TrEMBL record:
Family annotation (InterPro entries): GGT_lsub, GGT_peptidase, GGT_ssub_C, Ntn_hydrolases_N
BP term (GO), one: glutathione catabolic process
Residues forming the catalytic site: 407 (nucleophile)
SUPFAM superfamilies in UniProt: N-terminal nucleophile aminohydrolases (Ntn hydrolases)
Organism: Glossina fuscipes
GO MF, any single term: glutathione hydrolase activity
Annotated keywords: Hemostasis impairing toxin, Platelet aggregation activating toxin, Toxin
Region described as Disordered: 19-38
Transmembrane segments: none
Cellular-component GO terms for this entry: plasma membrane
Ligand binding (L-glutamate): 138, 425-427, 449, 477-478, 500
Name of the protein this chain belongs to: Scoloptoxin SSD14-like
């Protein structure tokens, strides 16, 4: 990709995001915050960090030079956003710099999926040390939240918003791994807000699907109705976000303090939220913390190791599914598909016993059981090739399942070999379906990812106690940004997805196809998929799945729900490395963009 931009000047890194180990008792920690308001203050609000260590040094991994050095690559869900990240890399930016600029672009172009009113999970690889770190900057329950708050209320609107972490998470990433000035990373997104951007087919479809909700909510109608047509924006029309652009300009100039430490963005945001019935306060913003965590590490396919995000993400569910299925591989596609579906059912069933271990210490025992080799062995004995079960208790379920859709994934590798896979979300499509007028920020509806006591969902399933609301708690998430390394410590795959609960199963199928079936990365991502989350008790299946596999599943006794290519399924972004060079790919189910920057040419 050829990029013509001026080289950024005055490159400066203020790297004060210190790391500390998390408290060992898994309780919600207290933060004795210093009074200073310098960059050092903002950095020290990072809550937890622990390192993997030089995992691959003993294997001699760092003695071999990977073939992908000198090449940068980006795979983005935003149709023009990878090019923006590519320009950042071309002009000396780090993988984190490129990720932040790309995500800010996506937040403008994909307001139905992510934005600075949401949160994210990042999986970072540092080539020089071989270390992998997880940064969790997800939304947290406000201080006034309690487990019974939605027993008599609909979980929508401003009341459904959790404390956002997106901007503060970007700041902590930049403080540790940024190279270019913070302000520089905002410039492309700000330009999109004021000069306009093309409406994608996917955004146009989302707006049409939520037509009634958008038109009835004035704060949303103001930005999603085209003033020239007096109707919702359609594909290829040009949309503008000037109020959001002003907010991004302030954040670029003033840093996260403008939002998280009594600054004008935070004050306006809270004022609008409370006027619309929400409960987020300025204190919630001031008390917000990110978490640096260890990854879940799982040996896979003999020569590889999977590194994925820990609770309260679904990385553990992904690892469990892969651990169960690897010994069950067969070239008989229908049989393997049946085994995979049963592994999904067990994984999603057990997921309902999980939650945020900092607020639910007992979940640690469930987690340790879930990842144990003995548990995977036991589950394999329950999987049959010719039968299935409709009893949810058979699959260890204890739940309300909550569906989420508003998500985007990004994969970036820099020419020095550093990499980041990051999944950002506002939870549902268009989040809480309301917007802060003064800031232009669309609110998340992350409170909907929690469970409510006594609540029975649409499918008659009771709530999951491990996921009840508590102030400061993070709800369970379907996200699982993942990196696979070989035994030399070289990246072989970066992958993550958008699409709610279908993310985990989609990532699992892609990894299995790429490493076990040895398919090219495009085929691994775009092949027909299946999904079973236990509730509802049927398989979501794409019409591109072979008919002989469909017939087999019907004969086993499954109920099938057919999804055509234009219906919602998880959309992945990935970078494959099997050829020795990075190969960025976007899922054909949802148009995105890729960039490849060869510094060796």
């Amino acid at each position: 990709m050829h990029v013509d931009v001026d080289v950024f000047k005055d490159v400066k890194l203020d790297n004060n995001c210190n790391q500390t180990y998390g408290n060992s008792n898994n309780t919600a920690p207290n933060d004795n915050k210093p009074q200073m308001k310098s960059n050092e203050y903002w950095g020290k609000r990072s809550l937890q960090f622990s390192t993997l260590g030089d995992t691959f040094d003993a294997l001699g991994g760092h003695k071999q030079k990977p073939g992908y050095l000198g090449i940068g690559a980006i795979a983005s869900n935003g149709e023009c956003c990878a090019e923006i990240g590519g320009k950042i890399l071309r002009n000396g930016g780090s993988a984190v710099d490129a990720a932040i600029a790309t995500l800010l672009c996506e937040g403008v172009m994909l307001p139905h999926s992510l934005g600075i009113g949401g949160g994210f999970v990042a999986n970072l690889y540092t080539k020089e040390t071989g270390k992998i770190e997880i940064l969790i900057a997800r939304e947290t329950a406000p201080a006034a939240a309690h487990q019974d708050m939605f027993m008599a209320k609909e979980i929508t609107g401003a009341i459904a918003a959790a404390t956002p972490g997106e901007i503060y998470g970007y700041w902590c990433l930049h403080q540790k791994y940024g190279k270019l000035p913070w302000k520089t990373l905002f410039e492309p997104g700000i330009e999109l807000c004021f000069k306009g951007h093309r409406v994608t087919k996917y955004l146009a479809n989302i707006l049409e699907f939520y037509r009634e909700r958008v038109l009835k909510e004035a704060t949303m109608a103001e930005i999603f109705i085209n003033p020239y047509t007096n109707d919702l924006y359609k594909e290829n029309e040009i949309m503008y976000r000037p109020q959001l652009g002003e907010t991004l300009k302030i954040l670029a100039e003033e840093g996260p303090g403008a939002m998280y430490d009594g600054g004008r963005i935070g004050k306006m945001l809270v004022e609008d939220i409370q006027e619309m019935g929400g409960i987020i306060t300025e204190e919630d913003l001031k008390n917000y913390k990110v978490r640096w965590e260890e990854p879940i590490v799982m040996p896979f396919a003999k020569d590889y190791r999977l590194f994925t995000a820990p609770l309260p993400t679904s990385g553990v569910v992904l690892a469990f599914i892969l651990k169960v299925l690897e010994p069950l591989h067969t070239t008989d596609e229908p049989v393997f598909c049946q085994r995979m579906i049963e592994a999904f059912k067990h994984g999603y069933g057990f997921r309902t016993n999980l939650g945020d271990t900092r607020y639910e210490p007992h979940v640690t025992e469930e987690f340790e059981k879930f990842i144990s080799p003995e548990f995977a062995d036991d589950i394999r004995t329950l999987i049959r090739d010719d039968t299935t079960c409709t009893n949810m208790g058979y699959y260890n379920a204890n739940f309300t399942h909550v569906e989420d859709h508003g998500t985007a994934n990004l994969s970036v590798i820099a020419p020095n070999g550093d990499a980041i896979a990051i999944t950002s979300t506002v939870n549902s499509h268009l989040g809480a379906k309301v917007r802060s007028r003064q800031t232009g920020i669309i609110l998340n509806d992350e409170m909907d990812d929690f469970s409510t006591p006594g609540f029975v969902n649409t499918y008659g399933i009771p709530a999951s106690p491990a996921n009840y609301i508590k102030p400061g708690k993070i709800p369970m998430s379907s996200t699982c940004p993942s990196i696979v390394l070989d035994n030399f410590g070289h990246i072989q795959l970066m992958v993550g997805g958008a699409g709610g609960s279908k993310i985990t199963s989609g990532v699992a199928q892609t990894i299995l196809r790429y490493f076990i079936l040895n398919e090219p990365i495009e085929a691994a991502i775009n092949s027909g998929r299946v999904h079973h989350q236990l509730s509802p008790m049927y398989i979501d299946i794409e019409t591109t799945v072979p008919e002989y596999t469909i017939d087999y599943l019907l004969n086993v006794g499954h109920e099938l729900n057919y999804l055509s290519p234009d219906k919602p399924f998880s959309a992945l972004t990935a970078i494959g490395f099997k050829t020795g060079k990075p190969h960025p790919v976007c899922d054909g189910r949802r148009l995105g963009s890729t960039a490849l920057i060869n510094f060796n040419a």
